[in-house]
Design a protein that fits this description.
- By secondary structure, the protein is an alpha/beta fold.
- The chain folds into three domains: about 1-45, no CATH class; about 45-195, 2-Layer Sandwich (Nucleotidyltransferase, domain 5); about 195-234, no CATH class.
- It has helices spanning about 1-5, 10-20, 25-40, 45-60, 90-100, 145-160, 175-185, 200-210, 215-225, 230-234, and strands at about 65-70, 85-90, 105-110, 120-130, 135-140, 165-170, 190-195.
- Strands 1-2-5-4-3-6-7 form a seven-stranded mixed sheet, sandwiched between helices.
- β4 and β5 form a beta hairpin.
- α2 crosses α3 (about 25-40), α6 packs across α7 (about 175-185) and α8 (about 200-210) packs antiparallel against α9 (about 215-225).
- The protein is globular and about 70 Å long.
- It starts with a helix and ends with a helix.
Length: about 230
């Protein structure tokens, strides 16, 4: 909800003020006015970040089995405050449900929108249920997608959520994910397998051999085969 309101166009604010009050305000005034209004309703970004530990602790209390992990930036003697670098969480019900699913997780990251001083990336791990529905399993907020952040996130997924059950991780070909998975496969031999999204493999195949008749179809048929016999036949 906050993201929708935050991205409400400043030009619309100008138009609303002109329509309701008959006053023309500059774009700059509309921008500052919107920020003040959002802060009065939702609190400032600084206040919200300070409440994050208490909020996640309340989530743990209300959702038994929920796991929260923190990684803090270097401690500052001057400020005597700890600034979080990464935070990971997985709801207890999601962890319990994942144990009933196939040990296959798809992972990806998306940029967070908001004030420029508080940019970050949301990392997500999802699986599929027996009804082929997408089911979110674990989340993390990190500063950016790096080898370190992905390795930290994926290690918690494997240890805290999958409980070291042999797991297949599916991703795109992001260099940081590939590097992180290479590290973790070395640390947990036999417990992790890394594969790439079929959609990306199809795109790479078409770009290398051209869109010849049947290439995309056969690639998709191969990637979606659920039986060894059908896979080998394709």
């Amino acid at each position: 909800m906050f993201g929708l309101v935050y991205n409400y166009c400043d030009m619309f604010v100008q138009a609303d003020v002109a329509m309701h009050y008959g006053v023309q305000v500059s774009y700059k005034k509309a921008w500052h006015g919107k920020r003040k209004a959002l802060a009065s309703i939702y609190g400032s970004p600084e206040e919200n970040f300070q409440l994050l530990p208490r909020y996640l602790e309340a989530v743990k209390q209300a959702n038994p089995g929920t796991i929260v992990k923190w990684k803090f930036a270097d401690f500052s003697e001057e400020s005597r405050n700890r600034t979080f670098k990464y935070v990971f969480w997985a709801f207890g019900t999601a962890i319990a449900t994942y144990r009933e699913c196939h040990p296959v997780l798809s992972v990806d990251g998306t940029f967070l929108s908001g004030p420029s001083a508080y940019k970050g990336v949301l990392l997500v791990a999802v699986t599929k249920t027996a009804n082929n529905n997408i089911f979110p399993v674990a989340f993390a907020v990190v500063d950016k997608e790096t080898r370190l952040s992905w390795r930290w996130f994926l290690s918690h997924v494997l240890v805290s959520v999958a409980e070291r059950r042999p797991t297949c991780i599916i991703s795109d070909r992001h260099k940081s994910i590939i590097a992180a998975m290479t590290d973790l496969i070395g640390v947990y031999p036999g417990e992790l397998v890394h594969r790439f999204y079929l959609q990306h493999i199809k795109a790479n195949l078409v770009s290398s051999v051209g869109s010849k008749k049947g290439v995309k179809y056969m690639c998709e048929k191969l990637g979606m085969a659920l039986q060894t016999r059908k896979y080998e036949a394709t």
